[in-house]
Amino acid sequence: MGAGLVAIPATPAHAAVDEWNYSANTGATYIKALGGVVQSDLTAQTAIAGGAQGSQKNSTAAANVGTLVSVGAAETKTTSVKSGGNIELTSNARVAGVNLLNGLIKIDAVETTVTTTGKPDGTSSHVANTKLAGIKILGINLPLDIPKNYGVNIPGVAAISLNFSAHAGTQELSATRGWAVAVQLLKAQNGFDAGTTIVLNPVNHYLQEAVPADNAPRLGGFTYASRISAKVGTQINVVSDPTAFVATPFNGSNGNELRNTTATISLPGIATVGAITSTSTSKRDPNGDAEIVNANRTAKINVLGGLIKADAIQVEATGKLVNGVWTQSLKMTTLNLVVAGIQLPVNVSPNTAIDVLGLGKVELNKQAVAPGSKANRIDGLKITLDTAQAGLPVGAVIEFAIAGTLITTS
To answer: What per-residue confidence (pLDDT) applies to 9?
Structure first.
C-alpha cells in the first residue's frame, strides 16, 4: 500500500512555474476490493480542483459497512491557498468512534492533516501528521506515539499501515498521498475477499504546471445523493452535507469517468438510503468546444418512516458547447416512487410539485436552466417542510439525487 508513490525517483531540477493546477480530495473512510473494485467510496468527501483559491467542508454523522467498518462523527476539509508565489493544498480529516474488523481494531479518535506546497521554482514539498487517540489492536503492543509509516500485522488476518504519507515529484506532476490507518485483509472475512483494503482519512494531492489552453472553456458542475439543511434566523445550518459528492474539474476529466459510490446512508430519524453512485464525465479542447455529463443514482430511499419511498431515483445533467452554441438536457427516471401513498409514474413531468398535508412541499424533477450562464441543474426530489419533523424546523430542506453543469467561456 503506497508503494507506487514511494518508488518514484528523487525529484529532478525544475524549470520556473508561473501557475499551478491542482486536484485534492479528502475522505473519512474508503474501501476497495482486490482488483480495484470500489466497495464504498470516500465518505464525508471534500474535493477541490483548478488553479484559484478554494475551500470545501463536509461531515457525516456515522458510516457503516457491514462488520468491516463502523465510525461515528466524521468531518473533512480541503483548502487551497496562494501566498507569495506558492500554492498550498491542505487536507484535514477527523473521525471519532472507529471500530474495524468487528472490534479487532478500535480507536477513540483519528485526526490527519496533510499539506502540499508547490513553489515558483517548480519544486514541491509536503508535511503530514496523524493523531491516533486511544488506538488498540488486538494482540499488538503499540508505541505511545505512532511513528511515520508504521506497519504491523494481525497474523493471518490483516496487514496494517499507520500514520502513512508519501510525496514524490517529476517535472510533469507532483503527488502526495496519506492516510491515518490502512488495513488489508489477508483472508476472506464476512463476504469480503482477501486483499480488500480499508482506509481511514485518505488524502490525495496532485500539482501540475498550468499550461495555457488557448480558447478552452472552464468547466464546472457537481452531483450528489443527499443533503439536509435548515435555516435558523438568517443563517443556514447544514444538518447533513452532500453525500457521494463529485465535482467537475475546471479543466475537465479528459473524457474519463469520475465516480463516487457509497454502500448505504442513514440520516437518523429522517431518512435511510441504499446504494448510491455519482459520476462526472467531461472534456474540453483548445478550440472552445466542451461537454459535461453529471449523473446520480440513489436507491432504496425511505423518508420519514415511509411517507416518501422509492426503489431508485436517477438524474442526469448534460451541458455541451460546440462551435459557440450551448445545448443542454436534464432528465430523471424513477422506480416505484411513492409520495404519501400515491404511486408516481416512471417519468415524472418536469417541475412537478405536490403539497403533502402535515409535511410540506414535495418537488420532483425540478429543473433550472440559465442559458446566459451556460448552466443547468436538476433536483430529483426536494422536500421543504412546513411542519417540524424529526428534529428539523419548519423550512428545513431535504434533497435527493442532484446534478448540474456549468461551462464558462470568459
So the answer is: 34
